[in-house]
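Chapter summary example.
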Amino acid sequence: MFGAFWRDERSRDRCFNRMKNRVRADHRIYGVQILDKSKSLHFADAHAHSNPVNGLGASEIAKRFKRKGGWFVALVGLSPWHYSIDEKNYNGYIKAIQLHIKECRAVAAEGLQVACFAGFHPADVDKLISAGKPPEEVLRLGLQVIEYVGKLCRDGVIDGIGEVGRQHYRTSPDRFAIAMSIMMRALELARDNDCLVHLHLENAGTVTVLTIDEIVKRVGLNRSKVFLHHVKPRIGLEAIKRGYQVTIPGHKETLRYAFGIKELAENMLIESDYIDDPRRPCVSSCPWDIVDRELELMVEGIVDENTLYKVNVDNIVKAYGVEHRI
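The structure predicted for these 326 residues follows.
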């Protein structure tokens, strides 16, 4: 049927080749135009860690991220043992938090905006009890640390409390109850001292959001101060509908899915959750890698430049109360 349009097979093949070459050229031009536009984009990492003792440290992380267009990092402290601090007590946590504050300042010294968080990770409860500490002693320690963090936040030394929350894995009832009690006190301190809070929670569907919402309402904390960190897109959407901040992991397929949900895409933040551990490089992601993935998705037509700007600048400014400066 189609053969009637060409004098012979050679003419047909020449025509097809010209068409294919034009499509390839258009694709290259399209890709270059997008990547040229991306030079005006700035990128944020809404939840990351640094380790100056065993990893790259904040200064090097900031330099690498800035080279990719990074302008903001929410830097969250690690537990003492990550920094090779052997003291599993209050003094050990104070040392870890003071080291982390220096890391936050190192990010700022590289010209990036930074929000600084310190807390008592729910997994610390399990680690300390497994190391032989009595449960009641771990509860006392966690509450002590959170009181100290709350004071730092009140004094303007740090910007928020985190991570605190609930274990995302199976644990015993007493350990879960301890983590919950520490989280409750953290939320109260956030309410009283105008702090932000990063919550580490299970990804158990809508019930994760509903149960946290009940707690936050009873505490009387403004939902916009509460960040649900490392959440799956569907859980993130439920949280956004109720006025919470959410940070979505910067894995390419997760972002592809999240950008396809309009309300989520317009209100979410993106995190690397980088742990700066050379034994597990780029777990969960490197900050500079999330930039590459966002740009790749823009080239593929999954997300546009305006949405990337909103996620990386407008939403960050609103959620963290920072000024967009380069």
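To summarize the output: Confidence is low (pLDDT under 50) at residues 1-7, 15-38.
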